[in-house]
Amino acid sequence: MRGAGLRGSSWRVLAYLYREDGLSQTELAQLLELTRAGVGQILDQLEAAGHIERRRDVSDARRRRVFLSARMHAEVAPLLNMVREFEDELSVAFSDDEIEALRSLLDRLRERAAIMISESADAS
């Protein structure tokens, strides 16, 4: 993705928008497991680069929705294919059972991190 000028979180924003254009900043923050402020900074960079557009929500003028630019919409599909090919090459090193075990462990880590973040916010 670096060849395309994208970093991890930026790339993930574009991938989510490719799958479901028009998400809100809050929805993206939840999907990315980042703060709204952190996502806001990523969106600022993507907007400055012409990768995304922010538009007012027609049903709630206080909310803004995020959309891929027309140019980026055409460019994301080939990038997704590159990612899938890379993941396929990586997964050759593991059996299907090992991949499933790894996914399960990562899910447990993600859940634990979310609990710790929630507890930390409650204590503040």
Structural features:
Arc Repressor Mutant, subunit A; three-stranded antiparallel beta sheet; alpha+beta; 5 helices
Give a verbal description of the structure.
It is a single chain. The chain has 124 residues and is of the alpha+beta class. It has a single domain (2-93), classed as Winged helix-like DNA-binding domain superfamily/Winged helix DNA-binding domain (Arc Repressor Mutant, subunit A). The chain has five helices and three strands; from the N terminus they run αβααββαα. The chain has helices spanning 8-19, 25-32, 36-48, 70-91, 96-123, and strands spanning 23-24, 52-57, 60-68. The chain has a three-stranded antiparallel sheet with strand order 1-3-2. Helix 2 (25-32) packs across helix 3 (36-48). The chain is flat and about 50 Å long.
Mean pLDDT: 88
The CATH topology is Arc Repressor Mutant, subunit A
Biggest sheet architecture = 3 strands, antiparallel
Give the termini separation.
37 Å
Number of distinct helices = 5
Low-confidence stretches: none
Strand element count: 3
Looking across the biggest beta sheet, what order are the strands in?
1-3-2
Order of helices and strands: HEHHEEHH
Q: What is the name of the CATH class?
A: Mainly Alpha
Strand-residue fraction?
5-15%
CATH superfamily: Winged helix-like DNA-binding domain superfamily/Winged helix DNA-binding domain
Assembly context of the chains: single chain
Task: Compute the CA-based radius of gyration.
Answer: 17 Å
Count of structural domains = 1
* CATH second-level architecture: Orthogonal Bundle
Helical coverage, percent range? 55-70%
Structural class: alpha+beta
